[in-house]
Cytidine deaminase
Amino acid sequence: MNKKLLVKKALEAKENAYAPYSGFKVGAAVLTESGKIYTGCNIENASYTPTICAERTAISKAVSEGERKIVAIAVTGDSEWTYPCGVCRQVIREFGEDVTVIVVKSEDEYREYSLKELLPFSFGPENLK
Ligand SMILES: O=c1ccn([C@H]2C[C@H](O)[C@@H](CO)O2)c(=O)[nH]1
Ligand SMILES: [Zn+2]
């Protein structure tokens, strides 16, 4: 896995954030099983609740292009360490149980987690079978 590239892509994606209300920019980059990288940023809305996080923007782009399995996701935001929110953790879970989550501070400072650490005892598609 090209971790460094994923980190860089997340940092680049943050620059496109549309966050006029919170002023808090977030970027994400998803690596899928096919080896492709999809990026995303947070997109806020004047009506507030339609706001979508960077992680879900990136995942939506991947899934709408036919991808079904996430290998890793890198996320970076305007706080020193920006962790995926609970909703995003659940959406990541839908497309992989063994996903690597990389929380990015800068190009050479990042922390790596497994999704299982961030979302233990999770509920996923297998539970409905
Ligand atoms: O992991 C996170 C946390 C927050 N946000 C966005 C949502 C909102 O636009 C702004 C402030 O919560 O940051 C993300 O995109 N990802
Ligand atoms: Zn989120």
